[in-house]
C-alpha cells in the first residue's frame, strides 16, 4: 500500500505549482502513481485529502512558530508572530489559501490559535492589554487573516505590503497600552489580574468566588 504521506506530498507539490484547482483526484493519482480508488481508501473523499494537505502545511507553519520562542517583551513577540504569518503567506500562498480560506476547522489550526492566545495572555499578564484576552486574540486573528486574504486576492500590481504592516500596527495599538509603566488604568489592571488568576488560581477562593471575581473583572475591563 502506498503510504498516506507520499500521497500528501504529491498533492502538496501540485498545490504549490497550480493552486487548489490543481488538486483533482485524477491529477493527484497520476502524480503519486496510483489509481484513484487508492485516494478514496486512504482519505475517504477529496475533502479528506484537502484536510490532510492543509494539515501538512500547518505542520511547517507551526514548526516556524515554535522556533520563534519567547522574549521578555510579549508585544514584540506578537509582532514577530505576525511577521512570520505574513512570510508564510507570501512564500506559500496556495497553502495559506487552503489553510485559512477553507471554512472547516482543523486541529492544527486550533493549535495556531492557542499559540496566539498565549501571546495575548502574556501581554495581559504584563498589564499591557486594553481589552479582554479573548476579544484581543480574535481581533488580531481576524485582522491578520483578513488583510492577508485581501492581499492575495488583489492583482499583483495592486498589492501593497505596507498595508499589512499598517494593519499590524493598528491592531497592536488598539489592543495594547504603550508600556507596562503606563498601564495604570482600571481596565488594564482588571485584565492583568484576571489573566494571572486564570494562570495560577490558587486555593484561596472557592470556584464560585473565582467565577464571581472573574465576572467583576470582566465588568471593570469593559
Automatic annotation (TrEMBL):
The keyword Magnesium does not apply. GO terms for molecular function: DNA-binding transcription factor activity; transcription cis-regulatory region binding. Residues 1-61 form the HTH tetR-type domain. Keywords: DNA-binding, Transcription, Transcription regulation. It comes from the Bacteria. Residues 24-43 bind DNA. The keyword Cytoplasm does not apply. This is TetR family transcriptional regulator. It comes from Amycolatopsis decaplanina DSM 44594.
Amino acid at each position: 500500500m502506498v503510504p498516506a504521506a507520499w500521497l500528501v506530498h504529491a498533492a502538496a507539490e501540485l498545490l504549490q505549482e497550480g493552486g487548489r484547482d490543481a488538486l483533482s483526484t485524477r491529477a493527484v493519482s497520476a502524480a503519486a502513481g496510483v489509481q484513484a480508488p487508492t485516494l478514496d481508501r486512504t482519505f475517504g473523499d477529496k475533502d479528506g485529502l484537502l484536510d490532510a494537505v492543509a494539515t501538512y502545511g500547518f505542520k511547517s507553519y507551526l514548526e516556524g512558530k515554535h522556533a520563534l520562542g519567547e522574549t521578555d517583551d510579549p508585544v514584540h513577540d506578537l509582532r514577530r508572530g505576525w511577521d512570520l504569518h505574513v512570510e508564510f503567506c507570501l512564500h506559500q500562498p496556495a497553502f495559506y489559501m487552503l489553510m485559512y480560506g477553507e471554512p472547516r476547522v482543523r486541529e492544527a489550526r486550533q493549535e495556531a490559535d492557542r499559540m496566539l492566545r498565549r501571546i495575548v495572555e502574556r501581554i495581559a499578564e504584563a498589564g499591557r492589554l486594553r481589552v479582554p484576552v479573548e476579544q484581543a486574540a480574535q481581533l488580531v486573528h481576524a485582522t491578520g487573516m483578513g488583510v492577508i486574504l485581501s492581499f492575495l486576492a488583489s492583482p499583483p500590481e495592486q498589492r501593497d505590503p505596507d498595508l499589512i504592516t499598517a494593519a499590524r500596527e493598528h491592531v497592536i495599538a488598539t489592543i495594547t497600552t504603550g508600556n507596562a509603566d503606563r498601564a495604570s488604568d482600571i481596565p488594564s489592571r482588571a485584565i492583568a489580574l484576571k489573566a494571572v488568576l486564570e494562570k495560577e488560581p490558587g486555593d484561596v477562593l472557592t470556584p464560585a468566588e473565582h467565577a464571581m471575581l472573574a465576572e467583576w473583572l470582566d465588568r471593570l475591563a469593559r
